[in-house]
Amino acid sequence: MQIFKFLFPPSLLLFALNAVCRPPANWRNQPATPPQTHQTGATFRSACNQSTHQTDLNINNVRARLLNGGDMWWGLNDNTFSLARYVVPTPKPGEPEVSSLAACGLWLGGVDPGGNLKMACQMYRSQAKNDFWPGPLDANDGTTDESTCRNWDQFFRVLGSDIRKHKANAEFHKLRGEPYPPEEIPKDVKGWPARGNSFFKEIHQFDLPNTNQGLALFFDVNQNGIYEPENGDYPVIDLKGCGSTTFADEMVFWIFNDNGNVHTQTGAAPMQLEIQAEAIAFSTQDEINDMTFYRYKIINRAVETLDSTFFSIWMDPDLGCPHDDYIGCDTTVLRVDTIYYEDANGNPKTKTRPRRRDLMYVYNMDKTDGDLGCVCPDANTYCNEVPMVGVDFFRGPLDGDGAELGMTSFVYWLREDPILGKTDPNIAPEFYNCMTGRWQNGTPFTKGGSGYNPGSTDVTNFAFGSPPNDTNGWSMCTANLPKGDVRTLQSSGPFTLRPGKVDEIIIGVPWVPNINYPCPDLEPLLYADRTAQLLFDHCMEMPQGPAAPDLDWVELDREFDCLLSNQ
Question: Residues 231-252: what's their mean pLDDT?
């Protein structure tokens, strides 16, 4: 007798209701000049060296460079005329590569009980400009050492095809009533840096830390909290509130911290933060094939509380040629959520918060990408087939009520800024001013022109909040601003960062080709962004039917089982 068994993936999508809140109306009334900084407080056991490792997220139409020093999307130490490494579309052999984004970095900052500003920010990293180091921090004292940083200067990649193969293998041996041989487990699944993985040291030659924060997430078959791939456990996407069994076609995990050495980017004291990062991509036949997603799990390993804290995403958003880009943001209210919480006396309370589209976007200032026609001295260009790209701030840190903050400000400046007469921020107070939604010198952003209008009372948190094709709105297009190399900053705050607190920052990067320029309509990008938002709201669960099955014959006592499984 033959028994046919079909193993299909779950078809139900999991929905996550993301409660997003906004800061109080008067939060911008903080002093324009933030507290002074001092390199005091946390210490490190032995000085770490800067990260050198890099890899690419490269499963779909995007090839995105990942780095292990709080930065990504640029070619660290690459000897090429352009360092931009967010390449889309992925070129065919022999074709030139064109990048839509040039660099991205994480910024974090807050004020300690003594009134000192503690920060960690990263732009283009060098030996003289570095605030992050590879690896986790000790859960007891928030320190690290050179050997830990050296061991963790790497990325842990797993492919969805290997996870599917692993799941089929585990089911096959389970059906036969026999152990799953470790040598059959795919190496990327076997070496996943998840809690208690007994194979980790064999593969990577160093030990995993024993931490309550769990490291890389996995589906736990027997719910014992230990990663045991020989029992069928497998890597999954880590999204708070999802309880997910979902994995992507490519997932890359890494860990970095801000307490491995002296901060030479900002000059500020460390916050003692450990950041567990994950890059995610899907190979599909729709707009998701042109997207990538990034999650930062931020753990406070310090023993003191930081107030007036902000988390930010810095970018150098070069769309092909870096000299002719415009930027803007869309903060349309999508819905109003009801937030349930308890006050200081434990009494149940409710409040409403708007859920916005927290999207920044980059577009070309005219219909041709380049300085002179399609020619650009610093990069390959999209010529007359110019795309548009955005970064959506899906999730931010938690406020005092336990509700999620989204993007609370979006600002910009130019690398060679004629307004301020200077370039990028250089000292901690300038970084912090930008994070709180101001110009580097503390001047508020105001609507109209470049956004720098001293004396104006029309203050805004969001630069260029109108669509480029809205002739009555405020955009870089309607302001007719000159060419320049733009920098942007998406921030979330203020909030209180307590010892042991765990927060998330999650961003998605939608991209659409061949936009009609100049002053383009946003709708093609907004459509792609809605697709990305829907995927995020559904816990990254891709709606799909079963793949073509693989067939395995299992010999039992006087019978055979035919096992059909999806690879």
Answer: 93
Q: How far apart are CA 104 and CA 462, in angstroms?
A: 19
Task: Output the CA–CA distances (angstroms, integers) from residue 466 to 59, 177, 276, 387, 444, in the order listed.
Answer: 34, 63, 35, 19, 18
Is the predicted pLDDT of residue 545 greater than 60, yes or no? no
Residue 348: both structure tokens together:
């149940």
Q: Which residue in the block uniquely carries the two structure tokens 């990034």? A: 294
Burial class, 525, CB count within 10 angstroms (exposed 0-12 / middle 13-18 / buried 19+): buried
Angle (CA) 561 566 567, round 5°: 115
Q: What angle do CA 158, 395, 15 make, to 5 degrees?
A: 75
* Cα–Cα dist 9/34, whole Å: 52
- Phi and psi, residue 150, nearest 5°: -65, -45
Question: Six-digit token pair at 522?
Answer: 């946003």
Residues 550/380, Cβ–Cβ less than 8 Å: no
In this structure, how many other beta carbons lie within 10 angstroms of the beta carbon of residue 122?
A: 25
Cα distance between residue 238 and residue 539, in whole Å:
9
Q: What is the pLDDT of residues 369-419, one digit of tens each?
A: 999 899 999 899 999 999 999 999 999 998 877 778 899 999 999 987 766
Distance CA 90, CA 92 (A): 7
Tokens representing 138 are 């000790």
- Mind listing the pLDDT tens digit for each residue in 447-468? 999 999 999 999 999 999 999 9
Q: What is the model's pTM?
A: 0.88
133 in Cβ contact with 48 (< 8 Å): yes
- Amino acid letter, 507: I
Residue 387, preceding peptide bond in cis (omega within 30° of 0):
no
Q: Which residue, among 507, 281, 263, 301, has the nearest Cα to 407 in the 3D structure?
A: 507
Other beta carbons within 10 angstroms of residue 366's beta carbon come to 14
pLDDT tens figures, 261-314: 999 999 999 999 999 999 999 999 999 999 999 999 999 999 999 999 999 999
DSSP string, 469-506: T-TTS--HHHHTPPPB-EEEEEEEEEEEE-TT-EEEEE
Cα–Cα dist 238/294, whole Å: 11
Q: Which residues contact 270 (CB under 8 A, 6 or more apart)?
A: 41, 42, 118, 120, 258, 259, 263
Please compute, for residue 175, the number of CA atoms within 13 A of its CA located in the half-sphere on the CB side: 22
- Distance CA(490)–CA(360), nearest Å, equals 8
How far apart, in whole angstroms, are the C-alpha atoms of residue 316 and residue 319? 9
- Number of helical (H) and strand (E) elements in the chain, helices listed first: 7, 29
Q: Strands 486-497, 559-566: parallel, antiparallel or unpaired by DSSP? A: unpaired
